[in-house]
Amino acid sequence: MEVPDMLRARDGRALAQRKLLERFHKPLLFFTMNIPGPQKVSPLIRIGFEEGVRRLEKALVGAGIPILFHKVIDYKTGYEKYYVLDGAAGTVKDIAARLENEDRLGRLFDMDVLDTNGRKLSREELGLPERRCFVCSEPAKGCARSRKHSLPVLIRNVERILTDFVLSHTQDSMKEALLGEVTATPKPGLVDLDNPGAHDDMDQETFKKSTEAILPHLLSMAETGWNFAGSGEALFRTLRPMGAAAEKAMFRATGNVNTHKGIIFSLGTVSAFTLRALKRDHRVKGETILKEVGETVTPILEEDFRKIDPYHPHTHGEVLYIKEGCRGIRGEAMDGFPAVSSIGLPALRELFTEKKGTNEIYIETLLRLMAGVEDTNILSRSDRQTLYYAQQAAQDILQKGGAFTEEGLAAVWKLNDDFVARHISPGGCADLLILSIFLYRMESLFQGLST
């Protein structure tokens, strides 16, 4: 980026501000990122910018300040967004200052507020705390004046702050998905807050211990996807031993109880490809990511199936493959997790848009998955007739209103008693719910920027 570009951008901002003031006679907020160095745009910087927009607009809504006009400028001199706001300029400046001081990411936000006369409000005149340096947390003006930090140090810190933000929210999304599934209550045949379902070797505490044990490994798998420069196939091959390490951690934490083996494979893979796509496209679209996963893993997993000895199967999955031709979680991955794309994700998008309760949304989504999925966990523990029964039972509850009616919830409690007696556990659908929750949360945060 050259100096003339910066001068043109500065002049353009001044002209835009003047026109907006003449048109609306309302306070303006101009938001950009405080990025040192010549490179002002990148997928990572854009992700930080979009999070700033999300935080700002949420704060404005919370304060009851209407947005009369907004526009995004995406140019090589940096990402910018103009706002015309129907509120007091001082109140807007207070909101902006709080966001800029909220955390290390906030210190990268630069939010200038102009009153109706075009005068830029300062923190000092409003008695607001001064800005803090994003490197050392000392007053930012002093660091800038003394050039306390070199340009390479500033650039490295910006990248670290933005990367930490992405990884932090990825971990939060994983944890919400894993614990959100287990704490959703009631669930037929599955561990929840009330009872262990059709399981006599695990309960909610077992799942919580397992979650804490595998989360660091899952995050490492996701981070590998973020940093990986090779092909998708090479990425998947890199992830497999990492998944094996996560399984060992799970068994250590649970006393050799298999709580999460299937989800380690699926969530570890999907999270890695999600961050790979996020870095490349600076947005998350679940169906696109799952399709890419399917196309990538199919040749490798087909080779796994060819290696199965039909006379000496080693796992429940291999036995089921030989007996029923069911490919289990590997088959789901090869097909791009179609139940997540066609049932789980659409359900969560629809139901959260309607602002229903989270617990009920998770139960409802599970029921929809149970009604439409060939759950290989049920098949491995029972038979195909039992699978058909479970699918029909879930469909019957959905016809009674599912998780959103008293009759539907009462039917779920009753079905749990029946599943316990029959030793039925729809664990495959539980894993698909976890994947759906993870992708929904990642989509909601990293959905791309509207103009």
From TrEMBL:
One of its GO terms (biological process) is prosthetic group biosynthetic process. It comes from the Bacteria. The keyword Aminoacyl-tRNA synthetase does not apply. Its EC number is 2.4.2.52. The keyword GTP-binding does not apply. The lineage of its organism: Bacteria, Bacillati, Bacillota, Negativicutes, Acidaminococcales. InterPro entries: CitG, CitX, TriPribosyl-deP-CoA_syn_CitG. PANTHER family: 2-(5''-TRIPHOSPHORIBOSYL)-3'-DEPHOSPHOCOENZYME-A SYNTHASE, TRIPHOSPHORIBOSYL-DEPHOSPHO-COA SYNTHASE. Belongs to the CitG/MdcB family. Keywords: ATP-binding, Nucleotide-binding, Nucleotidyltransferase, Transferase. It catalyses: 3'-dephospho-CoA + ATP = 2'-(5''-triphospho-alpha-D-ribosyl)-3'-dephospho-CoA + adenine; apo-[citrate lyase ACP] + 2'-(5''-triphospho-alpha-D-ribosyl)-3'-dephospho-CoA = holo-[citrate lyase ACP] + diphosphate. This is Probable 2-(5''-triphosphoribosyl)-3'-dephosphocoenzyme-A synthase. It holds the Pfam family CitX. GO terms for molecular function: ATP binding; holo-citrate lyase synthase activity; triphosphoribosyl-dephospho-CoA synthase activity.
